[in-house]
Every structure is written in structure tokens, then in C-alpha cells.
Amino acid sequence: MEKFPKKRLQELIKSIKYHNNLYYNDDNPEISDAEYDSLINEYKNIKKFFPSETKEFNILDKIGGQPSELFSKFNHPTRMLSLDNAMSEQDLLNFQKKISNFLNKNADDFEFSSEPKIDGLSVNLIYKNGILVTAATRGDGQIGENITDNVITIKDIPRLLKTKSPPASVEIRGEIFITKNDFIKLNTENKFANPRNAAAGSLRQLDSKVTAKRPLKFIAHGFGSFAEEKSSYYDQLIEFKSWGIPISPFLKKAKNVANLIKIYNEINKKRSEIQYDIDGLVYKVNNLSYQNRLGIVGKSPRWAIAHKFASETAQTEIKKIDIQIGRTGSVTPVARLKSINIGGVLVSNATLHNFEEIEKKDIREGDTVIVERAGDVIPHILEVVSIHKKNRPKLFKPPNSCPICNSPIVIEPDEVVVRCSGTYVCDAQKIGRLKHFVSRSALDIEGLGDKQINLLYNKGLIKDYADIFDLEAKRDVIVNIDGWGTLSFNNLINAIDQKKKIELSKFIYSLGIRFVGQINAKLIASAFSNIKSFRSFFEGKSNILSTLENTDGLGPKVIQSFIEYSSIKSNKEQILKLTQKVELFIKKIDTVKSKITGKKIIFTGTLSSMSRAEAKTKAEKLGAKVVSSISKSTDILVTGENSGSKLKKAKELGVSVMNEKEWSNLAS
Ligand code: IVH
User: Fold this and answer.
1) Is residue 418 part of a domain?
2) Ligand 1 contacts CB of residue 306 (under 6 A)
3) 68 confidence band (pLDDT: 50, 70, 90)
């Protein structure tokens, strides 16, 4: 048993109190939120491991300590969403194609709204019978913090809606921000890095009198649950405006993507004249019933997209060109740069994408280049501005063998990508897969980032996924590694414990199988009726190929990759070992009880009023299971145009058949 670290606990309490005071009372924090959180976590950990010795210490209860414990929690009636990004015209065309395919309409059947994407904080305002009753931060989208007392001090936000017939209840969403000029005036002591931080600091005040003095502004950009909504987003915002809610002066309607791009270019040109920071435009499908049908994928609506402004660039020199082996074996050339600051971020590496790109742009070591950084993506090289004068080195070519595992490097037909063939022997690929397994989009294990994976792998402490869940047994070794200690180790074990219940599709995605991204992982998971059947497949007791082949949306390349993966002995062993250590489950979608609940349904032929994807989503919401191959156990066959063999078979098997109209009536 560890010794109770009393001295450390006392230091922590002193330090937390000190930083609380700076943060909440002086609004002048000295440390980042992450550093603050780590103090709190360490404190909580000591309390957790030494409950009896720490009974008398309760600073979090007394002084609220943690920002998230300071304000009460608020469960948003309708989830607050994020946005997917578009960086190019092509991304926008893809967005348009996705929505038109989903609703089975022509690409130019859609009207959009457009407005700037304000760099502030989103807030949910709840008005009951025209009275502002609650204001809450976005939080994780479902649960935010109740900041009503502070929000009612903002002059832009009406406490009463200016209407004689207010709705019984409406959630109005928008952005709280500080203008650039107000920021300069407010920030005389350089407390805040930018207007966004200043707005955040001002909103999270214990004392609402402090918030009241801050020049906070508000612009609405959406709404949650609202029974009396208009038929379009644009009209709804105009109605909000008439109630005294500020909306964007740049809110516009657009007929098509070409129109959106025109608006984008206009706004981009006058970006510096706009009084507040914006980082792009947000486009939304204007028709609200289309929005409803399009629904949500993950955390973002299918019906909206943020079109980000282009990136920032800077000039620097390439010190060296290297290669990097990814988790799928892809060999990516990277430029090691003389470090340079691009828009506030220090950049020392840039991806060269592939070897064709190096040749096309004629990029060589020693050259001076323009580097571009956009949003969260890895910086890349736009062009060479001046070449290395003396003895310009030869063009960088792919090696014949992998520098890590020595396996042959192969260039696959139809691909620009050069690949290391040592899939299961290459340390770089194994490390890449482990990093992917614990990354944000996969298991999301806090405290187990790239750095820790490199270290634990290189020391032989984690060799495969299952080892991650056995780290407790290696406690003695790990706590003695430089930079680790009992507390950081305990934090890690806690974080791992929290991620032991894994949804099947997330688990499949986390395995990092080639071509199996989040969407394909969902489709593959849907082929297994339960966790038992998933296990039995990996035990070699059942076959899934025909179900996968009959799963709408799964292409042959993906299926082949998954089947190949699952046919390798070491993979099978690894999955079975892992399933002993974690708890897999299948997420049930929220369904409503209907006439087709529990029924097996098949769609065949071309539907005219909606896409297959929409029909499937709808049927699943109504509690039906959508299957793709017809058998005696099928309950309903819905026929679109040109229904072929399935219709014939349904008749033979006595499965009940309905046309699209009958299905629509049933489903509406
Ligand atoms: S729409 C429908 N419109 O951007 C989905 N968001 O990256 C959600 N934001 O959390 C919001 N300006 O805080 C929307 N005109 C705008 C916006 C906007 C800024 C923020 C908002 C959201 C984030 C998503």
C-alpha cells in the first residue's frame, strides 16, 4: 500500500485555492485550463485512494473549485450540435450531393441560409411564455452549465420577448462574443489571448456584477425544440428578430452552391471590416422539414456545414525530408522545417502527402517553401519559392525497404500511396494502430496520447491492444519511469477503466482496419445481431460474408479488408483476448412503438420520395429491423420502381408486400 502523500495534498490545496482566486475573483489566471484540471484530478485521486485520511479535506465542496462544479448542470432539452467543416468548393459539392442523395432529390432542389461563423461561445436560451428562464453553455452538447444569472446582464439578450403571443416554450441558440474594438479596450492588461477567451472568462464569473460590466454581445444562429416553428430557418430567424432577438446582419438565402461561394468571397473580402472575429460561414438547408428528415450524424447535423476561411501561410526552409510509416503502412514523406510561427502556432513539420507531389512541385531539401496551415489539419507545402543553390540534392524517392521493419515497400496498382508490406511485423504500423485505438475518435483514453504510447511500446509494456487493459500488473515498473509517478499512473488506470464499455461499431472502428472508417464500422457492426455472434465469428464458428455483402452501403473493398483482417490468426486471438477484458455492447437506437416494431423489413427497387438510407433510418426509428436478403422470416417487402427478383421471391415465400405509398402512410 502506498503511503498517504499528506505533504503533496497540502501543497495541492494551497495551489488550487491560489488559482481559484486568480481565476474567479481576479479573472487573471496564470495557468491553462488543462494545468488547472490536472491539479484538480491529482487532488481527487488522492481523495479516492486515501478516503479515510482525506475526510477532513473538502475544498471542492466548499469553494466550488472546479469550474464545472461552480455552476449547476443543465440538461439541454434538445442536444446542442457541432458542425462539420468544408474547406473547398469540392467539399461543398460533396455536402450538397450527400443531402440530395439522402432525400432522393436533385442537387439544385435546395435553398440554403448563409451567415458568418462567429468565434465566440454558444449558449442556449430558454424562453417560457416569452420570459427568459434559463441560459446555459453548450457543455458537451447534452449537459451544459446554468449561467442564467450572468446572461441576464447582457443587454443584447431580451429578458422578455417582444411579442403579444409568445410560444409556450422555445430554445433559442446563438453565440456570445466580444467585438475586436471592445476587446482592445478591455484587455489593457493583456489578460486574455483573444476576444473568444475574454468572452469565456467574462461569462464564467462567480459574481454577475463583473459580467455585467463586460461588453458581451449576442447573435442568434438557431433553435432547439420549438413547436410553432416556421417552415424555413430564414423565416424563423426573421421572426426571432421581430421579438427583439439579435440575428446576423449578414444572414442571407442562397439558391445553390455557386451562390454560396459568391457570398463567401464577398464576406471573406470584408472580413477585417467585420467588428468581430469570424472563421468562416455556416450554411444550412433552409427548409425545416428537410432539416428534420436529414437528421444528425454523430455530433453534427447532416443539414449544415461550416465553410472555413482559408488558412494562413508562412515561408521557411526545409532542413530534411524524412518518411513516416502510418498505421496502414502508408509511406508518407514529411518535410522537417526550420520552425516557424504560422498564425500563432509553431510549425516544424509539414506533410508532403506523397512522392508524386514532391516531384510535381519539385521540392528538395534546403529549398525555401511556403507552408500553409488550415484549422486542425497537418500543415503542408504550397510551393517552392527559392531553391537550394549549391549542390541541390536529388529528388527524394521512396526507399525499397521499410526503414523500421525492413519489409519490402510496395506501390499498389491504382494508388499513389506507397506502402510498407510488413503489416503485422512493422513496429511503426503497430504503434500507429495503438495510437489510433486510444485516440479521440476511437476509445478516447485520456492521458494515453502519442507520447505515452511510444514510450510504453518501446519499453515493451504495451505490445497489443489487450495489454492496455493489463497495465495495473505493470504498476511497479511504470511508476518508476521518468516523468511518471503513482498519481499519474492512477489517473491513467482510472481513465482506462472508464473506457471498458465499448459500443461494437466503435470497437470495430478502433481496430484500425484498412478502409474501415466510422461509417463502414457502423455498417459492419450492423451485420452482427449481438455480441455473441461477433465473438463466434472471430472464434471461426460462423460466417458473416453473405450478410456483409447484403449490407447496403458496404463496398467490396471494405468487405475484403475486414474479412482478410479477421482471417489472420493473430488478429483473431487478439480480438478474443480483448473481448475478455472489455465489455462490448450494441447501442439500441431510440425507437418509437409502431405497427412495424420488431418486424423484419426489406426495401427493394428505386424509391422515389426518399433515399434508401432515409427509409432505413425511418424504419429503424419505428423499431423495425432492416434486412437485405429475403427469407421466410422477413415480414415486409417495400417495393420501389423496378423491383426484380426480391418481389418474385416474396410472393413465393408469402412475405407481405407493400408499395412506396403504402410504406409512406405507415411510416408517417
Ligand atoms: S449552427 C446546427 N451557426 O460554431 C449546428 N453555429 O462549430 C450548430 N457558431 O457550437 C450551430 N457561428 O457555437 C451555427 N452562424 C452559426 C455559428 C455557429 C458560430 C458556433 C457554434 C457551434 C460551433 C460549431
Assistant:
1) no
2) yes
3) very low
